[in-house]
Amino acid sequence: MEAVVHPVVGKVSGRIASASGWTALAGHWIRWRQLGPAALARLADAIRASEVGHTGELLVVVETALPSRHLDSHERALEVFGRWRVWDTPGRSGVLLYVALGDHRIEIIADRGVPVADAHWQTLCDTLQSALRAGRYLPGLLAAISGIEDTLRATLPDESPGTPNRLTDSPLLI
After folding, report:
1. Percent of the chain with pLDDT over 70
2. CATH number of 7-173, picked from 1.10.150.20, 3.40.718.10, 3.10.310.50, 3.40.640.10
3. pLDDT confidence of 167, banded at 50, 70, 90?
4. Which of 87, 105, 131, 134 could join 73 via S-S bond, C-beta 3.0 to 4.6 A?
5. Dihedral (C-alpha) 79, 76, 68, 3: value to the nearest 10 degrees?
6. Alpha-carbon gap, residue 104 to 73, rounded angstroms
């Protein structure tokens, strides 16, 4: 998340770190150390369990660093949202949890069918950001998935039998 007080300084230092490759290197290191096969399996299980009882669908995407052409994590998350067809769910109820590890950026993008205020999603992002800063990657991601699940369960109708799972339950590492 960018600092609100000094947005220009944050963008300039972000460009320097991104151009030098430090953010990508840090992101690869974090992914390698914190998100191994066992952690990814736990996240997939949590996502699978979170999609029961409502019509919402969750896609978790973890990227080592923002691509050099994207300095804005929200813009990148919107691109990922479209590319992975999160919008293509019954009831327009897809939600994307996007994490750029090396850049320390988190975005939650919800489709139009999820009537939730941006401030609520921001609170979930801030909570996950705090966990990641403390080095609690897996517990933080699991808590974020649980928070998204609680939100979807409270705002969306019950899932009808035979509703297809349109999005993968496994976190995508890009």
Report:
1. 84
2. 3.10.310.50
3. very high
4. 105
5. 170
6. 10
